[in-house]
Amino acid sequence: MQRNIPFFLLMALMAAFLLTGCSTPGEPEELVYGGNTQSDDDPYIPQVVTGVNVGNVAPDFTLPDTYGEDVVLSGLRGTPVLLYFWATGCVYCEEQHPRMQDFYETYPDDLQVISVNLGDDPDLVNAYMGDHNLTFPCLVADSATQSAYNATSVPLAIILDAEGVVTFNNHPGYMVEADLQDSF
Predict the structure, then answer these.
(1) Rounded to whole angstroms, how far apart are CA atoms 22 and 24?
(2) How many other CB atoms are there within 10 angstroms of residue 17's CB atom?
(3) If exposure means fewest CB atoms within 10 Å of the residue's CB, which of 33, 63, 134, 136 is most exposed?
(4) Where do the structural domains in the chain lie, given as residue ranges?
(5) pLDDT for 47-91, tens place per residue?
(6) What does residue 84 show for φ and ψ, rounded to 5 degrees?
(7) How far apart are CA 147 and CA 183, in angstroms?
(8) How far is CA 32 from CA 35, 42, 124, in A?
(9) Is the C-alpha dihedral spanning 83, 121, 108, 63 positive or negative?
(10) Separation of first and last alpha carbons in the chain
(11) Which CATH superfamily is domain 62-182 in?
């Protein structure tokens, strides 16, 4: 019987080894959820990407309106936002103003139309808006916001859903009401 003790001890060690498995500490295993590779530390936390592509969370900003009052983009969450980038010297922008004004008047409770002027003096912008019967709010962009939104060519329309996620990013000349309604 004493000769069998090492055999039984060896068998018990092998059973314990097989039941507990073998692994070495190291990098967490990468798991794939819905096509996205995420660490197994917490696979339920979505990956948030800030940017202006559809599906990104729009870059936050604080900009003054043409009267000097600051507007914080993230403070507008809860309602979809149409950001309309433009300049007073832009002929194509002038063609799009009636469409933006129409959206502003048609969806007063469902959409916030916020225009963002690029580079013009606020007094000039206010006079221009008065001359063109534009009543939607207008912010004055700084270079950082212009860069963050890739607003190098105007007019530019970017629609954000109620959580601040980009749902549309295109030249508003190609935007029709169906695009707007599909975006919020």
Answers:
(1) 7
(2) 10
(3) 33
(4) 4-39, 62-182
(5) 778 999 999 999 999 999 999 999 999 999 999 999 999 999 999
(6) -120, 105
(7) 23
(8) 6, 12, 53
(9) positive
(10) 79
(11) Glutaredoxin (3.40.30.10)
